[in-house]
Amino acid sequence: MSASNVSYQGDAYSKFRPSYSDEIYSLIYNFHDQENGEYNLVIDSGTGTGQAAIELCKKFKSVHGIDTLPEQINNATSRDNITYQVGPGEDFSQFQNNSVDMITVGTAFHWFDHEKFFKEAKRVLKHKTGTLAIFGYYFPVISNEPKVNELVKQLVDKLEKYTNPKVRFVRNMYRDITFPFKDQAWYITPKSEDTTNISQPTTGSLMEASMTMENYRHYMKTASAYFNYMEDYPNDDPVDKLVEDIMKTLNITDNQHVVHLEWPTALILARND
């Protein structure tokens, strides 16, 4: 994930952001294989600290990760076949026409200039076989805890004025964006988020994980709106207050108590024309 005008702590981002699920990668590769897509070169744009890149490198000969934030790239996980670069997520000028097998964007596409991105993606992706995979998630819910999730909603509402307007794209599961490709497949979970019935079936949730309350605290502090809020109110930490209220509601005192989370998530797959 990448963002403008935000000072992320790359080490915390790397430690506490969840990994993308096997289900997401399985859907991506199945779509790519339908037209015998190759696995030579993939660009992971908005790579962050390499959460997707380290999975993609298991399938592709070469992975090129791009992110606008140096602190993200400085904390990225290295592998022999991954190259990281600081730069705009829409700039593929170093790649030749019709040369890239896949472009992925994980929870970063809402920050991009979409017109520029699509123009470049169409140029560099291989015709007929090149795959574009856009996936992203929003604030998670804690499974089977409606009272707790109301507290989370209150925090989201509190941070609304500190949230970049572009975040609305991922909040609405990217449905506000027109993807200029004929061959597309959409996946959205949980089902309650698929308000326009565009999702194809999945075998499970696209994004879910269990974590301790302490790790949940750290995860919530990687949100861009949280950083913006704390710049104005450095002595009023809304995430600490949220975690305190959640623990009271659940009647727990141990910050190592484990909760199960599910993230509203969208995966959009498209094949170059």
TrEMBL record:
It comes from the Eukaryota. SUPFAM superfamilies: S-adenosyl-L-methionine-dependent methyltransferases (SSF53335). Pfam families: Methyltransf_11. Keywords: Methyltransferase, Transferase. The keyword Transport does not apply. One of its GO terms (molecular function) is S-adenosylmethionine-dependent methyltransferase activity. GO terms for biological process: methylation. The keyword Methyltransferase applies. InterPro entries: Diverse_substrate_MTase (IPR051052), Methyltransf_11 (IPR013216), SAM-dependent_MTases_sf (IPR029063). Residues 44-127 form the Methyltransferase type domain. Belongs to the methyltransferase superfamily. This is Methyltransferase type 11 domain-containing protein.
